[in-house]
Design a protein that fits this description.
single chain; about 650 residues; alpha/beta; Rossmann fold; seven-stranded mixed sheet; 26 helices; globular; disordered C terminus
């Protein structure tokens, strides 16, 4: 494959080299950087559209500010690929999201140019304010620049930070990367105004003049358009903007792809700011790559693809994805019950509720990046008599945990939590792993906590949740394809707190909770080949436990091994507590709990991550043999 020709980019080993380039060269550098990003992501997959949208912005920030002394903080971080290329990681950019390679997000351990790690949204302004306080307390750090998207700034945490930053009044830069608006002032008028500002020898009477001057410099119709853009993002039709009311100097909107505008604004702001500043930059997600610009999701997340055609490589599978199974099962339940509604936090397609939205649009609510609100919103609907399904990834549900406890569990409200991306998720790495939801939900009084062993079980769990009105209920399922079992024509509600036995034996019992059931069945085959008789059971419920099933397994087997795709303190801990309370640990039962290890696991393929975690079929078999006191040198890491 021919690499793009990048003579200007080839001269850049780090941001200091950008500061030696003229403005015209910086514009050329942005063009070459965009080509490099496209080429790299075509080989690795990743968040392409968001990265293409900030190419010029990335170049301009590094050219104007003194990074890494000045702290550049990307919100979420999935738009950081151009930043990584410019900060000494170009030689590794084609290891992006691969095992042992670069993270797909900013990461403190990876580079001094990543001062704050992020893969969940809306944290940048809070962190940037923290850096400014450290600076003002004499720590060796310079200005802080937070780059936050129009989606991320909708979250409550961002507004909490804006309010606090405005109150503090400290010098701080927030760049609103707005890729939802269509207006853009013409290059000529805006560039002339900015050039005049920066070239002027006399300082502005007040920094506010800089912000207000943008609109004054434009012809009438364009001035009206710029004012409307302000109002769209701020909701303040008269007087100052919301940001100004919070204590920020507001500048914008500006064209986030016009290098002259960006450089002029950033230079003027850096030279004159004394307090918090918000710069409103309009960008296009996927900018400069037609397949991304015209795609419905702007190539937000892509697999490997052909640069010329934009065609993405898709792995073939005969099994449907769990997310699609959930979406179709939820739609089927919604067809039968008009009280069913769905809530998601900016992830309609990621969670599968977009499938329901195509049939029942009025009953699907996307609340934006606002998990706390989503949970309490669902609680309110449940209190009002509806049947809300709150569909949120495991790693994002953590953000609404107080609301899960206080607004749902404490009041016993029947909110149905559909928890996608349970377990290890591959290329997104530790930040997106669904490791903790079993533990943090199963310890709440009155909660029902389920996990699907396969895609057919997921259909039944959707039906179970729809039928359950006694209190909160949750079901978890992994990313990716199912195992290929036949799907039922209609889900049937499961008996609450009742598991199932898939295979009966007498020597060792493997008790699985969730999607590692297939690995347990493979482990049973390995053990049977060594002459060990194996029972395999699917717990289905971490709460309430099937205590009769656990008693049966404990009483009739020499060893019991629990297996789950979650952290310590989850399903295995619930089983251990029950066995201890009932005295079954007093009689010599050999029990082992297999969980994710007590550490974060870096990105790799899901298979490699589970090998790292010690949760392969071979690991399960070896653990069972060890519990039985049988040496097993052939097991463990030998099996891929």
């Amino acid at each position: 494959m021919t690499r793009p020709v990048t003579p200007t980019l080839d001269r850049v080993a780090g941001p200091a080299d950008l500061r030696a380039l003229g403005d015209r060269d910086l514009a050329q550098l942005a063009r070459e950087l965009r080509a490099e990003v496209i080429d790299a992501v075509s080989q690795t997959g990743g968040h392409l559209g968001s990265s293409l949208g900030v190419v010029e912005l990335t170049v301009a920030i590094h050219a104007v500010f003194n990074t890494p002394f000045d702290k550049l903080i990307w919100d979420v971080g999935h738009q950081c690929y151009p930043h990584k290329i410019l900060t000494g990681r170009r030689d590794r950019i084609r290891t992006l999201r691969q095992e042992g390679g670069l993270s797909g997000f900013t990461k403190r351990a990876e580079s001094e140019y990543d001062p704050f790690g992020a893969a969940h949204s809306s944290t940048s302004i809070s962190a940037a304010l923290g850096f400014t306080v450290a600076r003002d307390f004499g720590m060796p750090t310079g200005d802080a620049i937070a780059v936050i998207g129009d989606g991320a700034i909708s979250a409550g945490m961002a507004y909490e930070a804006l309010n606090n930053a405005g109150h503090e009044g400290r010098r701080l830069f927030v760049i609103l990367n707005d890729n939802e608006m269509s207006i853009a002032p013409p290059v000529g008028a805006m560039s002339r105004y900015l050039s005049g500002l920066y070239a002027g020898t006399s300082p502005l009477a007040a920094f506010r003049d800089l912000a207000e001057g943008f609109e004054r410099a434009l012809p009438g119709p364009l001035r009206d358009g710029a004012r409307r853009a302000r109002q769209l993002v701020t909701g303040m039709p008269g007087g100052g903007t919301l940001f100004e009311e919070l204590g920020f100097s507001y500048i914008g909107p500006i064209d986030g792809h016009d290098m002259a505008q960006l450089l002029g604004v950033l230079r003027a702001a850096r030279a004159r700011a004394t307090g918090p500043v918000l710069i409103h930059a309009l960008t296009v997600k996927g900018k400069g790559y037609a397949p991304a610009e015209t795609s419905a999701d702007k190539y937000h997340g892509v697999g490997r693809f052909d640069v010329a055609s934009g065609t993405q490589a898709k792995a073939k599978s005969n099994a449907p994805a769990y997310t699609r199974v959930f979406g179709e099962a939820l739609t089927a339940e919604a067809e039968r019950d008009p009280r069913i509604v769905a809530v998601t936090a900016a992830m309609p397609s990621g969670t599968g509720v977009d499938i329901m939205a195509k049939r029942f649009k009025a009953r699907v609510f996307d609340v934006g990046i606002a998990e706390q609100h989503a949970v309490t919103f669902a609680a309110g609907m449940a209190a009002g008599g509806l049947k809300p399904f709150c569909a949120i990834y495991s790693t994002f549900l953590q953000r609404g945990y107080d609301q899960v406890v206080h607004d749902v569990a404490l009041q016993g409200l029947p909110v149905r939590f559909a928890i996608d991306r349970a377990g290890l998720v591959g290329a997104d790495g530790a930040t997106h792993a669904g490791a903790f939801d079993i533990a943090y939900l199963a310890n709440l009084p009155g909660f029902v906590v389920m996990a699907a062993g396969d895609e057919a079980e997921l259909v039944h769990m959707v039906a179970t949740a729809a039928a359950w009105d006694e209190g909160p209920i949750a079901f978890r399922y992994p990313r990716g394809e199912g195992v290929g079992v036949e799907l039922p024509s209609r889900g049937q509600p499961l008996e609450i707190g009742r598991g199932r036995v898939l295979r009966e034996g007498s020597g060792v019992a493997l008790l699985s909770f969730g999607a590692h059931l297939a690995e347990c069945l493979r482990a049973a085959e390995d053990l049977e080949a060594r002459g060990v008789s194996v029972t395999v059971a699917d717990a289905r419920f971490a709460k309430p436990l099937d205590t009769d099933l656990i008693a049966q397994l404990a009483n009739h087997h020499a060893a019991l091994v629990t297996v789950e795709q979650g952290a310590e303190g989850g399903f295995g801990a619930q089983v251990l507590h029950h066995l201890a309370r009932t005295g079954r640990l007093d009689r010599g039962l050999a029990i082992r709990t297999m969980t994710l290890p007590d550490r974060f696991i870096e990105q790799a393929s899901p298979e490699a991550m589970y090998r790292d975690a010690g949760l392969t079929a071979a690991d399960i078999a070896a653990t069972a043999l060890s519990a039985l006191g049988i040496a097993a040198p052939a097991f463990g890491r030998a099996r891929a």
